[in-house]
TrEMBL record:
<dbReference type="InterPro" id="IPR011614">
    <property type="entry name" value="Catalase_core"/>
</dbReference>
<keyword id="KW-0376">Hydrogen peroxide</keyword>
<dbReference type="GO" id="GO:0006979">
    <property type="term" value="P:response to oxidative stress"/>
</dbReference>
<comment type="function">
    <text>Decomposes hydrogen peroxide into water and oxygen; serves to protect cells from the toxic effects of hydrogen peroxide.</text>
</comment>
<feature type="compositionally biased region" description="Basic and acidic residues">
    <location>
        <begin position="33"/>
        <end position="49"/>
    </location>
</feature>
<dbReference type="InterPro" id="IPR029062">
    <property type="entry name" value="Class_I_gatase-like"/>
</dbReference>
<feature type="active site">
    <location>
        <position position="100"/>
    </location>
</feature>
<dbReference type="GO" id="GO:0046872">
    <property type="term" value="F:metal ion binding"/>
</dbReference>
<dbReference type="InterPro" id="IPR010582">
    <property type="entry name" value="Catalase_immune_responsive"/>
</dbReference>
<dbReference type="InterPro" id="IPR018028">
    <property type="entry name" value="Catalase"/>
</dbReference>
<comment type="similarity">
    <text>Belongs to the catalase family. HPII subfamily.</text>
</comment>
<dbReference type="InterPro" id="IPR002226">
    <property type="entry name" value="Catalase_haem_BS"/>
</dbReference>
<dbReference type="InterPro" id="IPR024712">
    <property type="entry name" value="Catalase_clade2"/>
</dbReference>
<dbReference type="GO" id="GO:0004096">
    <property type="term" value="F:catalase activity"/>
</dbReference>
<feature type="binding site">
    <location>
        <position position="384"/>
    </location>
    <ligand>
        <name>heme</name>
    </ligand>
</feature>
<dbReference type="GO" id="GO:0020037">
    <property type="term" value="F:heme binding"/>
</dbReference>
<dbReference type="GO" id="GO:0005829">
    <property type="term" value="C:cytosol"/>
</dbReference>
Length: 720
């Protein structure tokens, strides 16, 4: 396992009228006002006089930075403000998760290739062909359990490895960066994104004032917001979604050498997304779209797979690589600078038997580590080490959540932890401590093969620090923008325009446009044009730097450069009684071996018949929408029938066209396309004479996911 070469280190306050003095005769008992619990010491005063305090009334000096030992040291346990803020946040919702409430899980295995042995002694990674049981939970972040799957949001990608050395949890997302650099601001960004507390709307979306107010003022969010406004935030399926560990980990090899590492999940089906209108339609047509897709794929034997990859970098004293601060969770390391080395294969092959017992009760924790894997002083990661454990105490009723079947380690457990709520183990013995002189079978420590924290030096003055290297908020946001294809850039512009168009405050819109102008003037101009407002000057913010010009990183673009696999892709075939049904069997025969699914669509339920052939109808025009399909085929014999003449057929084809999906018609199916203005000369639209000719053009387009030339033309841009 090679390490990449080291490089150079480079709402406003609410005003209240002044209280009038009252004579003794005029005095009456005070009326309780929750905003003024004490008449002598009101919590709110004149505009601008409010002071942020703890729950105990202690004024806070800084709520944006955790207390650390020096600018780059670990977060200190004595940070009472951090602990109070996150503890309160973790206990806001019972029992639903505060974040990542909407999720779906699956069981599987992870098989190591063995090539990671040079960088880590973690057996599940270092031992060739070792298989480890896993449970994976995918999720959205902001929405409640009842929200839709395909909202624009970050997706959680959390994996629990039941290794023979203990449980390791890789608790990541489908985006490699985050909104804030320090965990002390995590409650703030989530509160800003959640529904407004007075009306509990909008649900599961960020197209509202408080979110954009926060991110436009906390400009460290600029990079993550760019990802959230991209197609990455509306994945086609969990199966076609990348995953990232977000933070930098420190790996330790058997010989004691260490490396700084970022972890990636690479889907073997490629990384694909929906387009925005498609995602919106899906929210209404099938709010369970992603969980249904995953469950059906596993049930059908099309097991989703990802490879785990490592970006391995030298463990230098400054913990940077090519001028990129590896402790800043708003940074990526471009794959062109440090390639991702693939070290194992994850396969999901079993759906849960019970959603609550497994998917709802699975408990992840960033601090679940095994020998060979260590955390770093990333201040967001350090806060998560506290937050996740604290959350489980609230959600799962006590400290014994590890005894639940979905969480139970496969390694032997022998601890001196006792009692507590939901205790299921029947412990014996009287000495629950060590050393003791009353029992001779006490468990002993394992300094040779146990987890030993690396003795890294820690020094520095206590304080709420903001390292200088954390102050470049725009270079990586620009890197992401310039790495996108014209089509992807058009989608980002559309997303910013939609979201900011939902804000009521012009001040917030203007401020965010100033942030965009700092990233790229063309991006800001295009969004401003969509909003119908002038472009403000680039944001100037004291202590914040960037952007520096960046070379594009092709790995950030989702556009495929070559045809990919079609496992689980769905082709909808519109047929009619008396028409050519052979196209269905031809497609099933040709695509079935590749794992693609062909579904029969008709104007009615039951069966469609033709001559001596009968096919079961799987979807009717009443029960289907275009979002179910990755490609649409109109069979010969459909024109002039109820299926061909139905207005819903026109809608299905028009939507598939706008979403860039392959469309094919055989025989008189061309007349159905012509009725909605398609002649077969459009990119990704094909007209063939007979069923035998359908496969060639369809297979190629399906493997490219969409017709990118058509999407570019629809977006009014040149190039893919």
């Amino acid at each position: 396992m090679r390490s990449c070469s080291a490089g150079g280190g480079p709402e406003a306050a609410r005003a209240h009228p002044p209280e009038q003095e009252a004579t003794v005769a005029e005095q009456t008992p005070p009326t309780y006002d929750p905003r003024h619990p004490s008449p002598e010491h009101p919590r709110r005063g004149e505009a601008g006089s409010r002071r942020l305090t703890t729950a105990q009334g202690l004024r806070v000096d800084d709520t944006d930075r955790s207390l650390t030992a020096g600018p780059r040291g670990p977060v200190l346990l004595e940070d009472h403000h951090l602990r109070e803020k996150i503890t309160h946040f973790d206990h806001e919702r019972i029992p639903e998760r505060v974040v990542h409430a909407r999720g779906y899980g699956a069981r599987g295995t992870f098989r190591a290739y063995g090539n990671a042995a040079s960088v880590t002694k973690a057996a599940f990674l270092a031992t060739a062909d070792e298989e480890t049981e896993v449970f994976v939970r995918f999720s959205t972040v902001l929405g409640s359990r009842g929200s839709a799957d395909t909202v624009r949001d970050v997706r959680g990608f959390a994996t629990k490895f039941f290794t023979r050395e203990g449980v390791f949890d890789l608790v990541g997302n489908n985006m490699p960066v985050f909104f804030v650099q320090d965990a002390i601001k995590f409650p703030d960004i989530i509160h800003a994104g959640k529904p407004h507390p007075h009306r509990e709307i909008p649900q599961a979306q960020t197209a509202h004032d408080t979110f954009w107010d926060f991110v436009s003022q906390h400009t460290e969010s600029a990079h993550m917001v760019m990802w959230a406004m991209s197609d990455r935030a509306i994945p086609r399926s969990y199966r076609t979604m990348e995953g990232f560990g977000v933070h930098t980990f420190r790996l330790e090899a058997a010989d004691g050498t260490t490396s700084l590492v970022k972890l990636h999940w690479k889907p073997l089906l490629g990384t694909h997304s929906q387009v925005w209108e498609e995602a919106q339609i899906t929210q209404g047509a099938d709010p369970d779209f992603h969980r249904r897709d995953l469950a059906e794929a596993i049930d059908s034997g099309a097991f989703p797979q990802w490879e785990l990859g490592l970006q391995v970098m030298p463990d230098t004293p400054d913990e940077t690589f090519e001028g990129i601060d590896l402790l800043d969770p708003t940074n990526i390391v471009p794959e062109e600078l440090c390639p991702v080395q693939r070290v194992g294969l994850l396969t999901l092959h079993q759906n849960p038997d019970n959603y609550f017992a497994e998917t709802e009760q699975v408990a992840f924790h960033v601090g679940h580590l095994v020998p060979g894997i260590h955390v770093t002083n990333d201040p967001l990661m350090q806060g998560r080490l506290f937050s996740y454990l604290d959350t489980q105490l609230s959600r799962l009723g006590g400290p014994n959540f590890a005894q639940l079947p979905v969480n139970r380690p496969r390694a032997e457990v022998d601890s001196n932890l006792r009692d507590g709520m939901h205790q299921t183990e029947v412990h014996t013995g009287v000495a629950v401590y060590k050393p003791n002189a009353v029992e001779d079978d006490e468990p002993t420590a394992s300094p040779e093969d146990g987890f030993v924290t690396l003795p890294t030096p820690v020094s520095g003055e206590k304080g709420r620090h903001h390292p200088v290297s954390f102050r470049d908020h725009f270079t990586q946001a620009r890197l992401f923008w310039v790495s996108m294809s014209p089509v992807e850039q058009a989608h980002i512009v559309e997303a910013y325009t939609f979201e900011l168009g939902k804000c009521f405050s012009q001040e917030i819109r203007t401020r965010e446009l100033s942030v965009l102008a700092r990233i790229d003037t063309d991006l800001a101009a295009r969004v401003a044009a969509g909003l119908g407002v002038p472009v403000p000057p680039p944001l100037e913010k004291e202590g914040v730097t960037g952007p520096e010009e960046a070379e594009p990183s092709p790995a950030l673009s989702q556009l495929p450069t070559e045809p990919g696999r079609v496992d689980g892709r769905v082709v909808g075939v519109l047929v009619a009684d008396g028409g050519d049904l052979s196209v269905v069997e031809r497609l099933r025969s040709a695509l079935g071996d590749d794992g693609a699914v062909v579904r029969v669509v008709a104007a009615h339920g039951g069966e469609v018949t033709s001559a001596d052939t009968a096919l079961t109808v799987e979807r009717t025009l009443l029960t289907t929408r275009s979002v179910e399909y990755d490609a649409v085929v109109v069979a010969d014999g459909t024109a002039g029938t109820p299926a061909g003449d139905d207005a819903r057929t026109a809608v299905l084809i028009q939507e598939a066209f706008r979403h860039g999906k392959p469309i094919l018609a055989s025989g008189d199916g061309a007349q159905v396309l012509a009725a909605v203005g398609l002649n077969g000369r459009e990119p990704g639209v094909h007209v063939v004479e007979q069923a035998a000719d359908v496969l060639g053009p369809l297979r190629q387009d399906l493997a490219m996911h969409r017709s990118w030339e058509r999407l570019a033309a629809l977006a009014g841009v040149t190039g893919r």
